[in-house]
Amino acid sequence: MVNGFIDKVRTNGGALRAYAAALSGAGGRLVISLFYFVALANTLSVADFGLFATASATGIMLSRIVGFGFTSPLYRMAAVKPQLIGVFGAGYLFFAALSTPVLLAAAWAAHSVFFDADLLLCTFLVIVLTEAFLWRSLEVIAIANNGLNRFGLASTLVIIGSGLRAAAAVLFAFSVSKSVDVWAWWYCAANFAALAVGAVFFMPKARLRLKLPLYRRHFADSISVSAAEILFYVQSELDKLLVLGLGGAHTSGVYAIIMRLVDLPAIPIRTFNMMLVQKLMRSGDLLNSVKRRIGLEIGVFTTSTLGIASLAFFLKYFPNALGVSVATVTGLLFSVLLVPGFRNLVEYQAELLYARRKTVLRMINLALLAGCKALLLTLIFLKAPTGTDWLPDLNWAYGAIWLPSLLLTYSALRHKQKHQATAEDTSPRT
């Protein structure tokens, strides 16, 4: 038995070391993100923090328009044909330029619908464009390094970027003016500095070459990936926009603080998702085992729940550990213990569909989930428009969102497995 375990460790040693490298980066991000959150949430008012968090979430959603999803072929080429990374890097820049007018139009529309009464258009655009062009470009550099199996470099870059944002938040705490309008420019400067570091020291060495004919057969997949990513972040971040619209700026601040804490256990799980996607790209039969599928689902849910429960108990006994302002909200964490598990499972299932090239189905799935989230949150806030009585209802709402994702994802995987088995049965034998 011991020998079998040792053999497994030896066999998977490379993967374990790669995951450890990526996880170390995720751990670093976790600590830095916590410092960043504490500094900012205790400097801005609850309402201003809610406005910033919601505008930032909107920027993250809209950032997936940039490049029309050409990060997907860039990542795939880095993983399987690294000699073409310069060609596909140039392709990403080309499509990023083409997508800019679409991004600007979408940003203006989002501000008109959700932010017009609470946030200046200039402030909103600074936050959104920072997410879409500065931080997203840094992510693209990290994506290219991940595709090249340079997980340590990618993690280091993201840590540096997160560290610069945290440093900006700390310095901002000592500034004279502490409004969201001023913080937006601090945020922009920090992300610009992070991108400059990434471009100079972490960019894979390759000569950029534009080859438009080569992109044609990848463009349809890119568009579907872009649409799926937009829908993924819509269903992931739509809650913040809805809470702002239905509950107002202060309620959106309470919700943003809660969900920022809920999101902390997701960081190591996202690292695992990234590694799993790569393995699935290279080995399609990795999840053919029902037992393995169930085990991974239970693992994601259990890890997420234990993470948020540990944080909730810690803050119960040390309520001011994250600052006095945050302490007014952290006691509410016990009301949402099941939320991170269901949220992370939905994200995990979406990554499975991406890895198996089920991009259209992934898009349909995410659109369905976004609609479910919008309906359920609207019902919750119509029932309890004030106070915090609505928080426990988030548990069953996110559970209801996870169930259709589960059914659709594994139905698609089972269909592909049967299709592969049929193809093998009908193929000529030698």
Summarize the structure in words.
The protein contains 16 helices and no strands. By secondary structure, it is mainly alpha-helical. It has 2 domains: 18-208, no CATH class; 241-415, no CATH class. Helix 6 (121-147) packs parallel to helix 8.
Task: Please give a handful of descriptors for the protein shown.
430 residues; mainly alpha; 16 helices; disordered N terminus; disordered C terminus
Write down the overall geometry: globular
Distance between the termini: 38 Å
Q: What integer is the average pLDDT?
A: 84
Order of helices and strands: HHHHHHHHHHHHHHHH
Total beta strands: 0
List the helices and strands and how they pair.
Elements (H helix, E strand, L loop, with lengths): L1 H10 L1 H29 L4 H18 L7 H10 L4 H31 L5 H27 L3 H23 L6 H22 L10 H36 L1 H15 L2 H17 L7 H28 L6 H7 L8 H17 L3 H25 L9 H34 L4
Helix pairs in contact: 2-7, 2-11, 3-5, 3-6, 3-9, 3-10, 4-5, 4-6, 5-6, 6-7, 6-8, 7-8, 9-10, 9-15, 11-14, 12-14, 14-16, 15-16
